[in-house]
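Run log, item B.
One chain of 216 residues. Sequence copied directly from the ordering sheet:
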Amino acid sequence: MPEDVVVPVGGSALSGDLALPEVRATVLFAHGSGSSRHSPRNRAVAAALQRAGLGTLLLDLLTEQEERRDRVTAELRFDIGLLTSRLVGAVDWLTARPDTGRLPVALFGASTGAAAALQTAAERPVRVESVVSRGGRPDLAGAGALTRVQAPVLLIVGAHDPEVLRLNEAAAEQLRGPHRIAVIPGATHLFEEAGALEQVAELAREWFLNPGSDEF
């Protein structure tokens, strides 16, 4: 069963769900704009990763108070610098724990969370082993961060999400490390089509277990 945790970052207390089966790495989830650790899509992916022996940390990158305010202003969810600082703090928190400190950290980002995940990978190149983006906006990470990412990156996009696919292709050109783009046939931005999310989970699992694999 997942453990309810509180991650202190920069004076804020972030709520999270930490699951640690017999693990070889811990996957830290960076949710997208307007989402949270309760996202059914990310929880479904997390469950599939747990069954493969990967630990998961589903984390709210905004506090409850910030979430309430942001429902009106919609500013913080697009503050990539803030989200990145919270994600970097979570990586450092995992490093400081005795049960996760020696485990590699992998990042799974969705929407704007993908940009924060890539910036975090650039900031913590030794700790972050791999990155997966689901329907993400890696372009928002900026060329300065993308060129510094050393971890293998998998960008998953729906075939019927043409604008996001174009943005992912442009961002991929900035990446200097190992990377792949995986296009899910028939899928739209939220991967709500039958079997689409299962394909996302399978791709993510294989990437996290075999970062940078040539089989993609």
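Observations after the first pass:
- DSSP finds seven helices and eight strands in the chain.
- The helical segments are 40-51, 64-73, 80-96, 112-123, 143-146, 162-172, 196-209.
Flagged for discussion on Thursday.
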